[in-house]
Amino acid sequence: MYKNDVKYMSVALDEALKAFPEVYPNPKVGAVIVHDDKIISCGHTQDFGGKHAEVMAIENMPSTLKGCTLYVTLEPCTHKGKTDACIDLITPNIFKRVVIANLDPNPIAKGGVKKLIKDGIIVETGICSKNAKKINRRFFTFFEKKRPYIILKIASTLNGVIAEKDGNSEWITCQESRTSGHKARSCCDAIMVGRKTIEFDNPSLTSHGLGKNPRIIIIDPKNKLDHKANVFKSDPIVFSDILNSKKPIENVSIILKKLYDLSIQSLYVEGGGQTISYFIDANLYDELQIYYSPKMIGEGKPLYNGMKKLKDNLNLTLNKIEQFDNDIKVTYLKGY
Amino acid sequence: MYKNDVKYMSVALDEALKAFPEVYPNPKVGAVIVHDDKIISCGHTQDFGGKHAEVMAIENMPSTLKGCTLYVTLEPCTHKGKTDACIDLITPNIFKRVVIANLDPNPIAKGGVKKLIKDGIIVETGICSKNAKKINRRFFTFFEKKRPYIILKIASTLNGVIAEKDGNSEWITCQESRTSGHKARSCCDAIMVGRKTIEFDNPSLTSHGLGKNPRIIIIDPKNKLDHKANVFKSDPIVFSDILNSKKPIENVSIILKKLYDLSIQSLYVEGGGQTISYFIDANLYDELQIYYSPKMIGEGKPLYNGMKKLKDNLNLTLNKIEQFDNDIKVTYLKGY
Fold it and tell me: Is the full-model pTM beyond 0.90?
C-alpha cells in the first residue's frame, strides 16, 4: 500500500456517492485516476444502462498519459451487459497500478483482477473496503447473503399501532410521509405485503408515478385472496402452496430463496404487523424505516406482535431521522 | 405602534431566550432600552432570585439619558419578592414610553401598566404577544389555565411498549437518554407517577444530582402502597382518598386543581401507561416527550391503552428531535 492510497480511495468513495439511486440494481461505483501524485480524472456510475465509473474517468483523461494509477471502489467488470466490459479499457500502456476497494461479488462480473494481473498491472485490493461496502449495502447483501436486501417499512401512531381494530389505517401518516414511502418503493426491486393488507386496504402498491414500480409480492399461505383486488392488475408473485402454514417464521427463508433466484436485489416489506413480525423474529432484515405520526389509537393492530424481549439486542444503528410535516421517519440499519 | 416597535421587541425576545432554565418558576423576560432610535442597553432575567430583565437593562444604561423607550416582553412587576419591584425603577424622568408584549397574568405581580400610566408614561401592550407567550409556556399555562404545565414523558421500544409483561423495564432506553430524562426532571416543580410504577421500579424519582429535585406526586387511589418504598424518603404528596376510583379520568382534574393550589407550575408525568393514558384521554397535557429505543417487545405493557381513535386530532406540533446514542427523543407541543 502506498502512503496516499487511502486518500485517493476516499476521493473515489465520494465520487461513488454522487451516483443517483437510478443506478439500481447496479452498484454505485467511483473511480479516480492519479498520475505523478495528482488527480487527473474522476468518474462515477451513470444511471442504469449508462456508463460505468472507470469508463467515465478514462474518457475524461488525456489519452497520451502513461504509468497512471486507477483507484476504483469495486473490481472492474469483465462482462458485456448494457455496456462493454470495463476491464478492456484498463490497459498496461496507460495503467501501471490499479487499487480496488472490494472484489465484485457478482459471479458474472468478477474476474477483473485476474485479467489485470495477467496483463502485468500491479493490483492492490481491500483499501477502504468496509466504507465501500456501506455505499452498496443492497448489492453486497444480495450477493453475499444470497437473498434480497430487506427494508421493513412501518407507518405507525406514536404508540406503535398501524391500524384500527377493524383494519382501517386511512391515513395514519400525512401526505408528505406517504409520498416519501412511494419514492422509497420506486428504489426497490420488489414490494411485499401479507394477505390481510390486501384485504383491508386494497392498495395498488405502485410508486404513484414517482419512479419505476416495484414487482409486487404477496404472502397468502392458504390461497384465500380474491384475485379481483387491485394488485392483481400488476401481475404479482403470490406465495401460497410452497409455504408452511404451521411454522410461518420458516416461510421467510423459503420466500427469500425464491426472490434471490428471481434476481430481486431489494425488497420493501410494507406489512402488515404479522408479516413485519415474522421478518423481525427471523432476524432477516437489513433496514427498518418507521414513520411515526402524532396520533394515538387505544385499541388497534400493533406494528409488532412477535417474540422479542427486552433483553434481545436487535443490533440496530440509528442512521437517519427525517421530518415530514408533524410526522417523523426514523431509519435504523441492522448489523451495521 | 411605532414603525420599529416590532423590531426592538424582537430583540427583547432574543434577550429573553438567553435566560437559563434556572429562572424557573419565574418567566424568562427580555428588556431593551432605546434612545433616539438606537439600542442603548439590554437585559434578561437572571437565575431564580437574581435580577429581573428591566433592572439589568436600566443598570447598564448611562444614568443621564432622558426620553427613552423601554421594550419588555412582560409587564414590569409591582411586588417585592426575592428582588425589589421593577416598576419603581421605570420613572418618567428616564422613560417617556414603555412597550410591553404581554400583561403579567400573575395576580400578585400585575398592575405595572396602571402605575406607569399614572406616572404619565405612554404604554403600549400586545406587541409580539404570541411569540412572547411561546417563550414562557409554563408560566402562562399555569396562570391562564389555573393548572400546572404538563409534560408527559415516555420511554418506549420502537413498538410502543414501556415494560415487559411482568413490569420489568430496566432498561429500555440507553444511559444518555436516561440522563436527559433526569435533567428534564430538574427543570420541573413536580414529578408524578402512578402506584404501579412505584411497585415495579421502586424509583427514587430524583434528578440524580443534575439539578434540583422535583416534588414527588403519587397516584394511589386505593391506598395500597407500601410506605417503605424509596420515594417515601422524599416526602411525596400521595393522592388517595380524594380520588374517584370509579371514574379515574376525572381524577386528573381533581389532582391538577390541588397542584395549582400548591403553586406547582410544571408537572413531569413519568407514567406508567395507565397514568399517561388518563392524561391523554382527558386532553390535559401541554407537551409530549417520547424516547424511542431500538428494541421490540412482543408481549408487554403499552405506552397508551386509552380511548383515542385514528380520527382524533391530538393537535400536536413537532417541536424537537434529539438523538441519544441509538435512541431518539421526540418532543411534541399540544395546541401550539
Answer: yes
